[in-house]
Design a protein that fits this description.
Elements lengths: L1 H21 L5 E5 L11 E10 L2 E9 L5 E8 L6 E4 L6 E8 L2 E8 L2 E10 L5 E9 L5 E10 L1
Antiparallel strand pairs: 1-2, 1-10, 2-3, 3-4, 4-5, 5-6, 6-7, 7-8, 8-9, 9-10
Length: 153
């Protein structure tokens, strides 16, 4: 009986974690809608993928830089506001996401301890689109803001 209770408890934990990610409206593949977006230059993220990674979330971003060269970055962490390493992002070496509500995340990127990116990510209530509003500060201290609208694939 004790073994059945333990097995049931472990199963319940796995189901609860899996259900939590299923109800996360960020999870999925998102493609930029150029017509609805406003970028200050040529750099943009074309595709963003959010996927569960155990009890964390993995975010993979593919796009182009100001010169049109491909970019690829990856981040794995939790929506807890803590810094987690990001690879492939020239503007930041750590990134944090903080859940504001079910549909909204706050994002912060840092390079060498200095904030270089701030923003909000809002998924529409119908789950079909998301709007990412960010302000990036480059190495020269120049700020640029953008509004990117993504459609769920």
């Amino acid at each position: 009986m004790k073994a059945k209770t333990i097995a049931l408890a472990i199963s319940l934990v796995f189901v609860t974690v899996a259900m939590g990610f299923q109800t996360d409206p960020q999870i999925g593949t998102w493609k930029v809608n150029e017509a609805k977006s406003k970028f200050p230059g040529k750099a943009r993220n074309h595709t963003v993928v959010y996927e569960s990674a155990g009890d964390q979330v993995k975010v993979t971003v593919d796009g182009v830089d100001e010169n049109g060269s491909p970019t690829h970055s990856e981040w794995t962490g939790k929506y807890d506001g803590k810094d987690y390493p990001v690879t492939g992002d020239s503007n930041s070496d750590v990134r944090s996401y903080r859940k504001i509500n079910k549909y909204t995340l706050a994002i912060t990127g840092k390079k060498n301890g200095k904030v270089t990116l701030t923003g909000r990510i809002v998924v529409a209530r119908n789950g079909k689109s998301r709007t990412v509003t960010t302000t990036v500060t480059n190495a020269q201290g120049k700020k640029a803001s953008s509004v990117a609208v993504y459609d769920k694939q």
